Every structure is written in structure tokens, then in C-alpha cells.
Amino acid sequence: QVQLVESGGGLVQAGGSLRLSCAASGGIFSTYSMGWFRRAPGKEREFVAAIDWSGYWRNYADSVKGRFTISRDNLKNTVSLQMNSLKPEDTAVYYCGRDAGGGTYEYWGQGTQVTVSS
Predict the structure, then answer these.
(1) Residue 117: which residues within 8 A CB-CB, separation 6 or more?
(2) Residue 101 — very low, low, confident or very high, per pLDDT cuts 50/70/90?
(3) Which of 26, 82, 84, 97 has a Cα at 20 to 30 A from 5?
(4) Other C-beta atoms within 10 Å of 14: how many?
(5) CB-based contacts of 48-51 (< 8 A; 24+ apart in sequence)
(6) Which stretches of 1-118 are assigned E, i.e. beta strand?
(7) What is the predicted pLDDT for the residue at 27?
(8) pLDDT reported for residue 102
């Protein structure tokens, strides 16, 4: 049974930083791409960032490029999202997910709330 548990959310002022972590258990973590998504109030869930199994390939939504960095530690079975220069529009529940292949995510965490005040 694959479980993903996010942590690190909170309240931060605009311009500040947060680091989200996602701990994975069950399955073979190091063979899967992982991603971060977010859902703002009243909006659909949207892609934020993804990283392949090796950590060498990374992809970001245009809205977070240059501000967010995704990374992973295959020894600790964790994937992280460093978020800098946060903006009020980054306010959302952030979810990590495991990519089953081709960008289809099959497992999700419960989410962690990020609130950026202006």
C-alpha cells in the first residue's frame, strides 16, 4: 500500500519561503517520477512541478519557474518543494503524487495548506 504524507505548509508573508516535504512508504520509490500539484479555493487542481526517478529531469509550471525547486532523496524516500519569493496567488493546498507513467498520477497525499499573506 503506497502512502504519501506531505508536511511543511503554513502561513507566510509575501516574499517569504517555505519548504514542503512528501514522505513515501510502500512501493519502490526510486523507480517513479513524482510531482507536486496545488488546488486554490474555487479552482481546479493544477500542476506545479515534477521530477523523474533520477532527479536529473525536472519540469515546472510557468507560474513557479525561477521561484520553486523540486528535489528528491531516494535513500530517504522523500520529495521536496522549496518555494521562494512566495506570492498571495500561491495560496493553495499542495499535494504530492506518484506518476504511474506518462503523467498519470495514481497515488496522492492528503495535502498541506500553504497560505501567503500580502
Answers:
(1) 11, 12, 13, 14, 88
(2) confident
(3) 84
(4) 13
(5) 48/81, 48/94, 49/81, 50/99, 50/103, 51/79
(6) 3-7, 10-13, 18-25, 34-39, 45-51, 58-60, 68-73, 78-83, 92-101, 104-108, 112-117
(7) 83
(8) 84
